[in-house]
Predict the structure.
Amino acid sequence: MRYAQGGGLTAERRRFRERIRYEAGERFAWGERTAVIERDLWVSERSVERWRHAWQMGGMDALASTGPAKVPKVSDCQFAELEQELALGPAERGWEDQRWTLARVRALIAWKFGIGCSSATVCGCCTGMAGPGSLGRSPLVSRRLRLAGAAGLEPAASGFGDRRSGHLS
């Protein structure tokens, strides 16, 4: 599972990576070269360089884990507001045509709720990323279909929009 699909590192894996960064930090203090640390810890040169820079700027504390990555969430209340906004149409918000694009929905979410999110997140939220045959199993599908309907989208049999072009319809 990829990070954008809700995957990412488990708490155990984050602690493991943090221990590696701390070990690298100790080796920075001893003056070891990047190539040696990279080879011994089985990490990329770029990772060692990033860690070394963080260590130089903030010491060992800068190598601590910052916790799990969090995807901004739209609450159910905010989602209901978003549905209403989308039902008004893009012209209500100053766009010339009546076409909701991923960029426009993304801008609306950022303006209305102060939540920054990627186009992929908007696509997943608005159109449903569940694959064919899994519609009945996904708990978010009814919510996504309601939003797609409010945005004037018609879900196709093979998917819910054209992610390549950035358009939801």
The chain has two domains: 3-63, 76-150. The two ends are 27 Å apart (CA to CA). Residues 1-5, 128-141, 154-169 have pLDDT under 50 and may be disordered.
